């Protein structure tokens, strides 16, 4: 065989061996894309010596997640506890999936690097509100049918929203952030979020400003529907601010999906008001909120807003509701009153 | 460039920023002057649990305003329901330096005024549509673009106008200069009106805005729309905007008549508000003062036609 033929055979072999797993790893890391002879199972499970339910190598699913994604983890660049993207695993992604030392789009569960004060300071701070992720129980505000009260009780862990095995979409297709089409305990109809390509885990702004983050339009719209699989009654289409739902708690609602009604002039209509820099078209839950946790501070009126069940506590910063900006900056930056 | 020239743009930028911020805060309370991280929105709005349109925390604009400014409100010293300034109602000290505690509000009241039940008001509960002289002749009504609420005239988000009056009312541009505005200077029971204070009335009652000299004798067609006669020369009307001394009258603000007084603008001019209270009055009307078209107290400041006599002293 001529030399070039040897070279061709080697190249084809390389493509078969290396390119297939790379495609299969579309969900990233050990999360999906498994071959019949995958080694990935052993990354998280033990058949006979597991220390946690579901044959996990950790005592709980969240503990297991944090062995890679926690502050001390080394298995993933996404440190979700500190809300920051690092270069600490063995893979050098190409293209890069984030800017090292920049805040994660979802914020963080314990700390985050967010300039919520809009003052040019994004030093790491403790979060003031976050989605539960340790398997404890809370209320998914707005969950359930109209008139069913403030929300539904749910137990929330990382795996409530994320499917660690990936391939969570129809036919085993990857989903955005390996999010489950039907989050656990939601009881909802599935909402499939197509994966992004290439992945980008960090915010666009280099100064820690989380408000004004851009998303793919279709993904953005679908994300609102996805959030509403648990927070059903927060999904508010155009005109919800002027239409009484009849629900005693969630009567009139800010639009959370769609393009707005134009009456407040963010999308046209006289007189011209609003801040064009933050014009959202469409708009989504993630326009104002982050998914994991926020360092936003609440004071004055913003710190004493009653919870949907009427309770006044906790108040102050703890009332930050995963907002991207202190107080009601998310209102003012758009509406520019 | 000389060193001091570099400082000039820095100084000017700083002055501009400070000046803008100062102007924006002139409205006071939660009404305007918002920073990018303001908490004020949460005082009146809810994004997901609102009880009224426009994401209000109350079922209507009127109810929301009254939650602070009503008889039982604790969010503002200005009790517009009873027409009183009550200094102890809110933590704010705005207006307290210049306004007497328990003093009668310049605008009157919506429920009571001077401790008596009102006899006529600008009904701002969202049910009133008709306005006298709104694009029609005096003595006739036409519907406003939307029903009357507090927010029809006042902009709860602040305004460069006096008393956060809207820059657009019923589709008409409105300018009413700030005179006593500023947290330390507000005076809620003693007028410090600009000369253009009538403009807020004109937006809805344009036909009543008669400024032509000798209007009581001259309603002739001026050939160009008679804007100085409210666009309506079908009847005669009293003039506004002139100095009180026009016609040789006594100063109704300083001299008064029989212990009764009427307010004037900064230049001692007569405004709509010289005779009428913007919110509501408890004036009583009897006998001849109850004739057709005067079948209620028409927000007048004084019983019967006291507003005529204090000036004209016939």
Condensed summary:
With 337 residues, chain A is an alpha+beta fold.
Report on the architecture of this protein.
The complex is a heterodimer of chains A (337) and B (314). Chain A has 337 residues and is of the alpha+beta class. Chain A has a domain at 106-337. Helices cover 18% and strands 8% of the residues of chain A. Chain A is built from 7 helices and 8 strands. Chain A has helices spanning 3-24, 41-44, 61-69, 158-161, 217-227, 285-288, 329-335; strands at residues 78-79, 84-85, 111-112, 125-126, 129-130, 134-141, 151-157, 293-294. In chain A, strand 1 (78-79) and strand 2 form a beta hairpin. The longest helix of chain A is centred in the N-terminal third of the chain and has 22 residues, at 3-24. The N and C termini of chain A lie far apart (77 Å). Chain B contains 7 helices and 11 strands. Chain B is α+β, with helices and mostly antiparallel strands. In chain B, strands 1-2-3 form a 3-stranded antiparallel β-sheet. In chain B, strands 4-5 form a two-stranded antiparallel sheet. In chain B, strands 6-11 form a two-stranded antiparallel ribbon. The termini of chain B are far apart. The chains are: A alpha+beta (337), B alpha+beta (314). The A-B interface holds A 116-118, 141-142, 233-234, 236, 241-242, 244, 249-254, 271, 288, 298-305, 308, 325-329, 331-333, 337 and B 30, 32, 34-43, 45-56, 157-158, 168.
């Amino acid at each position: 065989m001529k030399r070039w033929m040897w070279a061709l055979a080697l190249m084809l072999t390389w493509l078969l061996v290396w390119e297939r797993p790379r495609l299969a790893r579309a969900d990233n890391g050990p999360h999906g894309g498994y071959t019949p002879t995958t080694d990935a199972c052993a990354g998280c499970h033990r058949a006979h010596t597991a220390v946690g339910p579901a044959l996990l190598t950790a005592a709980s699913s969240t503990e297991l997640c944090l062995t890679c994604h926690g502050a001390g983890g080394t298995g993933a660049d996404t440190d979700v506890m500190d809300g920051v993207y690092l270069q600490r695993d063995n893979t050098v992604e190409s293209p890069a999936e984030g800017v090292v030392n920049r805040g994660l789009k979802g914020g963080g569960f314990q700390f985050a690097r967010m300039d919520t004060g809009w003052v040019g300071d994004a030093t790491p701070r403790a979060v003031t509100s976050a989605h539960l992720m340790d398997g404890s129980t809370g209320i998914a505000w707005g969950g359930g049918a109209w008139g069913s009260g403030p929300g539904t009780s749910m137990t929330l862990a990382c795996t409530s929203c994320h499917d660690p095995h990936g391939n969570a979409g129809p036919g085993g297709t990857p989903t955005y952030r390996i999010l489950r089409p039907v989050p656990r305990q939601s009881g909802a109809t599935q909402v499939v979020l197509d994966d992004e390509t290439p992945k980008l885990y960090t915010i666009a702004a280099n100064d820690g400003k989380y408000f004004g983050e851009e998303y793919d339009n279709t993904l953005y719209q679908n994300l609102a529907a996805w959030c509403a699989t648990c927070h059903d009654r927060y999904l508010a289409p155009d005109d919800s601010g002027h239409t009484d739902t009849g629900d005693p708690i969630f009567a009139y609602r800010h639009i959370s999906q769609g393009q707005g009604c134009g009456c407040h002039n963010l999308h046209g209509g006289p007189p011209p008001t609003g801040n064009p820099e933050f014009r959202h078209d469409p708009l989504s839950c993630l326009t104002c909120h982050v998914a994991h946790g926020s360092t936003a501070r609440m004071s004055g009126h913003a710190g004493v807003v009653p919870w949907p069940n009427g309770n006044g506590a906790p108040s102050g910063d703890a009332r930050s509701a995963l907002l991207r900006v202190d107080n009601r900056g998310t209102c003012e930056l758009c509406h520019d009153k | 460039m000389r060193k001091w020239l570099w400082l000039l743009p820095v100084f000017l930028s700083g002055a501009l920023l400070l000046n803008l911020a100062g102007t924006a805060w002139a409205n006071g309370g939660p009404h305007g002057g918002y920073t990018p991280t303001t908490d004020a929105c949460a005082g009146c709005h809810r994004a997901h649990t609102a009880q009224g349109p426009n994401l209000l925390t109350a079922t209507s604009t009127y109810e929301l305003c009254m939650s602070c400014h009503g008889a039982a409100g604790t969010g503002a010293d200005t009790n517009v329901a009873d027409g009183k300034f009550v200094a102890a109602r809110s933590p704010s000290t705005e207006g307290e330096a210049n306004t007497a505690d328990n003093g009668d509000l310049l605008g009157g009241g919506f429920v009571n005024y001077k401790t008596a039940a009102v006899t006529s008001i600008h009904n701002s509960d969202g049910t009133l549509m008709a306005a006298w002289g709104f694009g029609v002749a005096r003595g006739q009504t036409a519907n406003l673009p939307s029903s009357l609420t507090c927010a029809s005239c006042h902009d709860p988000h602040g305004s460069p106008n006096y008393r956060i009056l809207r820059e657009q009312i019923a589709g008409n541009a409105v300018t009413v200069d700030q005179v006593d505005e500023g947290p330390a200077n507000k005076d809620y029971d003693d007028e410090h009106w600009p000369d253009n204070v009538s403009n807020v009335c004109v937006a809805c009652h344009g036909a009543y805005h008669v400024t032509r000299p000798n209007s009581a004798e001259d309603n002739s067609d001026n050939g160009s729309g008679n804007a100085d006669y409210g666009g309506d020369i079908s009847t005669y009307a009293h003039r506004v905007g002139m100095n009180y001394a026009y016609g040789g009258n006594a100063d109704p603000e300083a001299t008064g008549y029989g212990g009764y007084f009427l307010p004037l603008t900064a230049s001692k001019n007569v405004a709509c508000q010289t005779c009428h209270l913007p919110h509501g009055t408890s004036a009583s009307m009897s006998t001849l003062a109850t004739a057709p078209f005067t079948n209620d107290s028409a927000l007048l400041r004084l019983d019967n036609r006291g507003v005529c006599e204090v000036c004209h002293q016939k």
